[in-house]
Amino acid sequence: EANGGFIGARYMSATYLRNPDDFVKKYEHFFDETDLRQAQRNLAEFMKRLLVMRFESSKFAFKATLGNIVQSYQNVIKWWDKGFVPILKKGNLLAPDELDLDELLENIERANNGEYDVDKIKKVAVPVPIDMFENKFIIDVKNDLKLLSEIFAEWFEDNDIGDDPKLTKVEAEISKLLKQNEDRKIVIFSSFSDTASWVAAQL
Description:
Blueprint: H1 20-27, H2 33-57, H3 59-81, E1 84-87, H4 101-112, H5 118-124, E2 126-129, H6 136-155, H7 165-180, H8 193-202
Antiparallel strand pairs: 1-2
């Protein structure tokens, strides 16, 4: 954002294309450029909301999601250093060193000629040469990563979750209710299963 906030650049690389028409010509078998750009904008907005929801759920959930996003951003920069921007609609983005990049590029050419399954490539990532993107993309990616890394370091020093005020509050409420009636049954609801599991393990 203009105020230096989280943009979500990693999730909407198609909005940084220098020439969308060239992109469509080369990758028409993989994406519809107009739909892709809007879909990526929607994804970036969803990731922003997800971070807030995970933060509101528990420090444990927030740490897990924030850490995954940081790793994903780091992988995008590794791809850029290899000369590509990976486009992946869903799933976890691998670092380029975790797969055979030459084989992937060869399969893209084969897919363009109708000789390879497009869906198999889309499940891994479609690497697009960086010269098709404005340099602002990698600048925004690095700014996002800097911000996210600073938040992670501030909240999780030494990679430790630390005290969670919400968990402390839950423990206090449970203790109060059980003092009133030790046979009382208590149900705790959470929007995320990992938060529920973590809370159960802490109690």
